[in-house]
Specification:
The protein is an all-beta fold. Helices cover 0% and strands 51% of the residues. The chain contains no helices and 6 strands. The model is unreliable at 5-13 (pLDDT under 50).
């Protein structure tokens, strides 16, 4: 999936408490336990979570660190809430 795309396939009846911004930002999933990194794309983003496309979705644990735009400057610890094909719905964990 090429980076930088804008996605228009969000459901019209969105029941989220916060709106999500449609993006398409190339990012990185980092698994601290194994020190593995996986390329991914953040499809949409809100204050509480994101929808992430990753071809290696079956190899990912239920928790990981998401480096948005591939930088450590923008990182969030994530818990997987939903898996669908190559797409993950994640919730950000706050300290």
């Amino acid at each position: 999936m090429p980076g930088g795309w804008i996605y228009d396939d969000l459901p019209h009846a969105d029941r989220r408490h916060e709106p999500r911004r449609r993006l398409g930002i190339p990012s990185v999933v980092y698994v601290p336990q194994t020190r593995l990194r996986f390329s991914c794309t953040v499809i949409d983003l809100s204050q509480r979570g994101a929808r992430v496309h990753c071809e290696e979705v079956d190899d990912l644990p239920d928790s990981f660190v998401l480096f948005i735009n591939g930088t450590e400057a923008i990182s969030r610890v994530c818990d997987v809430m939903r898996r669908s094909g190559e797409t993950l719905g994640v919730r950000f964990r706050y300290r």
